[in-house]
Write a structure and sequence with these properties.
The radius of gyration is 31 Å and the shape is elongated. The protein is α+β, with helices and mostly antiparallel strands. Strands 7, 8, 9, 10, 11, 12, 13, 15, 16, 17, 18 and 20 form a twelve-stranded antiparallel sheet that branches. Strands 1, 2, 3, 4, 5 and 6 form a six-stranded mixed sheet that branches. It contains 15 helices and 20 strands.
Length: about 425
């Protein structure tokens, strides 16, 4: 064969191969209705987002409930046309093209089962009013005030779940103030653990017939998130062919409140800490709160010296206290002798350098809680730190006749007790409870 003809044949073959490769590349590029011609970088990134791929929910079902029930999620998605809630065209959100406004209604098309409904103060799919709307909604903010274009369009990373894809955090706008609750919980709790008004949990999600599932707002659970902080955990109960699957996963409630929850909401409620919860953990890296942590949390806002004994007399107590856990104190209870009006009349706590931390005075018998002294301001006693106290009692309070008393919450000592008759002791500890 003539060498010139051979070269022409080789060139022709290469041209056909290159053309086919180019056509394949064009065919594999998502069609965004022509928008990609001017916004190629946005289109390229968007093709990797959860909005486009739908990988988050589909992947979690495939690993957990669907795996247990033996459901093929590819077939399931096709059967129920789940892809309608995943965005394959720009028009899905940018209705009308350039200049189209993105509103809550835009997001509500797909997110009304949870996020947008709870955000505006409704239960799932706006079925009925919920306990409260998100404070950000009440202040006039919308979804895009937190979730910007980069987060919505993607950054080119193929994420597996919302936990990875969502970058917005509370501290982007709200640096934590130096309040006691923030100082005690810094690095341990996520903002949403205290500042979520309520939590939407899913019940009776029938995967076979897919009716509107029941959602409840009277349950609230906390767990350890992938970043190690305690956060709200969604409880999702799914059913299929009379079998039930229960999963728990960290979840942003979109029901944020300005005021945080009070201490007792967690420290008196093991149910909130998901004690005894059984089910799979959804998402990577999360876990239930370990039982030893729950045991430490429950009752951790008190220091209880417990009831003392006789003999008893009122007077002035001085000594030290060393908590075994961080303690937020707002009032002090004095245990009375039976049938008496034993109470505290004055209490003050000091650092070792004698700097006063806080003090409080008795408000009299007219107060129904006359066994209590309420301090002017709540204060913190840190774990392992020794503090001095001065407590003046009235009537007949119970006494611990020891120089040192060790209780689960720490150690309290008597340096000096001067009774009403002027007699001095070094082994009379007041029977008190700090709350």
């Amino acid at each position: 064969m003539n060498w010139k003809i051979l070269v022409l044949v080789i060139v022709a073959i290469i041209s056909v191969l290159v053309a086919n490769m180019v056509m394949a590349a064009v065919d594999s590029t998502p069609d965004f209705g022509g928008c990609e011609m001017c916004h190629s970088d946005v289109a390229e990134n968007f093709s990797t987002t959860l909005h486009y791929t739908g990988a988050g929910m589909k992947g979690e079902y495939a690993k957990h409930a669907a795996a247990e029930f033996g459901i093929d999620m590819d077939e399931y998605y096709a059967q129920w046309n789940c892809s309608t809630c995943h965005i394959t065209t720009c028009e899905k959100c940018h209705e009308g093209g350039h200049g189209a406004e993105i509103t809550i209604d835009t997001c509500d098309q797909c997110h009304k089962r949870k996020q947008t409904s709870t955000f505006v103060g409704d239960m799932s799919e706006h079925s009925k009013p919920a306990p409260n709307a998100d404070v950000h909604y009440e202040k006039g903010l919308t979804c895009t005030d937190c979730h910007d274009a980069t987060e919505l369009h993607g950054d080119g990373t193929l994420y597996e779940s919302q936990l990875e894809a969502v970058k917005a955090t509370c501290v982007d706008c709200h640096p934590a103030p130096d309040t006691m609750s923030h100082m005690v919980h810094v690095g341990k709790l996520d903002c949403t653990a205290c500042h979520s008004g309520w939590q939407l949990n899913c019940k009776d999600c029938h995967l076979k017939t897919r009716p509107a599932y029941s959602a409840v707002s009277d349950e609230f659970y906390l767990g350890v998130a992938a970043d190690g902080k305690i956060k709200p955990f969604l409880r999702m109960e799914s059913e299929y062919n009379n079998a039930t699957h229960v999963g728990y996963g960290e979840y942003f409630t979109h029901a944020i409140t300005k005021e945080g929850k009070d201490c007792s909401f967690c420290h008196d409620n093991p149910e909130v800490l998901c004690e005894g919860c059984e089910g799979e953990i959804l998402g990577q890296g999360g876990s239930f709160i370990p039982q030893e942590i729950i045991d430490r949390i429950i009752g951790a806002h008190t220091f209880d010296a417990n009831k003392g004994t006789y003999p008893s007399i009122f007077g002035m107590h001085n000594g030290t206290i060393k908590p075994s856990h961080n303690l937020i104190v707002s009032r002090m209870y004095t245990y009375p002798c039976f049938g008496t009006g034993g109470h505290g009349e004055y209490a003050a706590f000091y650092y070792q350098n004698k700097t006063k931390i806080a003090e409080g005075c008795w408000s009299g018998y007219q107060n129904s809680d006359y066994h209590y002294i309420t301090f002017d301001e709540p204060f913190i006693l840190n774990s392992g730190v020794i503090y001095n106290y001065t407590i003046r009692t009235g009537s007949y309070p119970l006494i611990h006749h020891n120089s040192t008393l060790t209780v689960p919450e720490g150690v309290i000592t008597c340096t000096e007790f001067i009774d009403a008759n002027g007699k001095t002791y070094t082994d009379w500890i007041p029977a008190i409870r700090l709350e």
